[in-house]
Design brief:
The complex is a heterodimer of chains A (200) and B (243).
Chain A (H helix, E strand, L loop, with lengths): L4 E5 L2 E9 L2 H5 L1 E7 L7 E6 L5 E2 L4 E6 L5 E2 L5 E3 L5 E2 L10 E2 L6 H5 L1 E13 L2 H8 L4 E5 L8 E8 L2 E9 L30
Chain B lengths: L1 E9 L5 E9 L6 E4 L2 E2 L1 E6 L7 H8 L4 H7 L15 E6 L11 E7 L5 E5 L15 E8 H7 E10 L3 H17 L1 E6 L8 E2 L6 E11 L2 E12 L4 H10 L1
Antiparallel strand pairs in B: 1-2, 2-10, 3-4, 7-8, 9-11, 10-14, 11-13, 12-13, 13-14
């Protein structure tokens, strides 16, 4: 069954199908690929440090283990925050109506560390909401794709091409003050990145 | 936690300075465990040497289900269950054998639908964000409300001063932008119009400067976007079909 993002504005619900969008799906991608002497694509594997076994794709597993070596099933896992207090599981919001807050400022969206972008596929949209987002209004709502321990924040935005949900975590920045001087690093700390993207 | 890098940037009057750009890593993920005892997430060996499906089929025949119930031939007791510590990355040829000569590297292009469109010798793309040429104001200002609806910003850097002079430099930039409630598109390279490439062979980004001011304090952010907010061709096609 198709799953929907359901939101409510002034008590009137609207629902959308959703499809994740990334730059590869918009512009394609480029990848550097190693080829063997016959022109075939090479694959990566891992060699144990002592050289005793070559680990190919499908030969490894991963799990949580207690200090005594007992592995834990997903259903047995409990979460704790940084000070050791147990965390409650946050249920999925998919298919569950979430209240829209706003309209909010564009700056709130700029303070979102965006993790996922969904193109929304309107199923039933209230005329009030449609009119409002068409006029450029932005709304905030709670989002959690699956049951887990960290709920996320979503923003509903619209442009000429459709309505989108930007999903991520809100970030707060500290004010830069005259007396708080940051030391200039000597060497850049580069981050890994891939070469792709054709919007230019 | 934040990471810091140098950023050479100019202002609307074409004065330039090297300042600090910091990016914050995501918040700490919760710890997992059971009954108050923390658990560790680890990789382990699930299948030993020559015990994958195709290899078992070759040694035991196509219908080997009964044999693995009777004798556990699929389990390599020397390795299975061992935690994986340090490993070395190895390339395998297309036939699955370890490679003993350096591979040829090609750059393969894929269209949005995933099909291969081109192969070529890789071209090194230099970083355009560097100490020698400052990022420049392009003069293209965009209201914040328009920018967030047009571009997807997935990375942001906070620009910070390194002394009193750069405090004034960045504060004035933040104030100019805050007063207009607008974001300024930055450009790189000699022309000052190229996209921002943070490191060699990195992705090109559109960079928009955004400023906020609170009396004598400021926040100056460089928001980076590598994609417009629009629908993939496959969705546009299905939208048109539905309508």
């Amino acid at each position: 069954m198709a799953r929907s993002i359901v939101v409510s504005l002034k008590g009137v619900e609207s629902s959308f199908g959703f499809k994740a969008v990334d730059r590869n799906s918009l512009y394609g991608k480029r990848r550097r690929v190693p080829l063997d002497s016959s022109g075939g694509i090479c694959t990566r594997a891992s060699l144990l440090e002592d050289g005793s076994l070559l680990l190919r794709s499908g030969m490894t597993g991963q799990a949580y283990f207690l200090p005594d070596g007992t592995s834990l099933k997903q259903s047995e896992l409990e979460a704790f925050d940084f000070d050791g207090s147990p965390l409650e599981k946050v249920p999925s919001t998919v298919g569950v109506s979430q209240e829209l807050h706003g309209p909010v400022n564009a700056q709130d969206v700029l303070d979102l560390r965006v993790k996922t972008i969904y193109a929304l596929l309107p199923e039933e949209v209230s005329s009030d909401l449609q009119t409002s987002v068409d006029a450029g209004d932005i709304y905030k709502f709670s989002f959690n794709y699956r049951d887990d321990y960290q709920a996320e924040t979503g923003y509903l935005v619209s442009n000429d091409s459709g309505i989108y949900a930007l999903i991520g975590d809100s970030v707060s920045y500290e004010w830069s003050k005259l007396e708080l001087v940051t030391e200039l690093p000597a060497v850049d700390q580069d981050e890994d990145d891939d070469l792709d993207f054709e919007m230019f | 936690m934040s990471t810091f890098r140098r950023l050479h940037v100019s202002n609307s009057k074409h004065r330039n300075a090297v300042v600090v750009a910091s990016s914050r890593s995501a918040g700490q993920a919760p710890s997992m465990g059971k009954g108050g005892v923390p658990a560790e997430f680890r990789r382990y060996i699930a299948v030993g040497g020559a015990r994958m499906d195709a290899e078992l089929e070759e040694s035991l025949g196509a219908n080997y289900a009964d044999k693995i119930i009777e004798g556990d031939p699929e389990i390599d007791f020397e390795f299975v269950g061992k935690f994986i510590e340090a490993t070395q990355s190895v390339l395998l040829s297309s036939s699955g054998d370890p490679l003993f000569v350096a591979p040829q590297i090609v750059e393969v292009s894929f269209s949005p639908d995933g099909s291969e469109t081109d192969r070529r010798v890789p071209i090194e793309v230099p970083a355009t964000v560097n100490d020698s040429i400052p990022l420049r104001w392009t003069g293209r200002k965009m209201p914040k409300s328009e920018a967030v609806r047009k571009f997807a910003f997935r990375r942001s850097l906070q620009l910070q001063h390194v002394d009193g002079v750069t405090f004034d430099f960045l504060f004035d930039m933040a104030k100019e932008l805050a007063d207009e409630n607008a974001m300024m598109l930055l450009g790189s390279g000699e022309s000052g119009k190229d996209p921002l490439v943070m490191q060699i062979n990195g992705s090109p980004y559109r960079g928009f400067l955004e400023g906020r001011v609170n009396v004598d304090d400021y926040i100056l952010l460089l928001h980076l976007s590598s994609m417009e907010l629009k629908r993939p061709a496959i969705l546009v096609a299905s939208d048109e079909e539905a309508s």
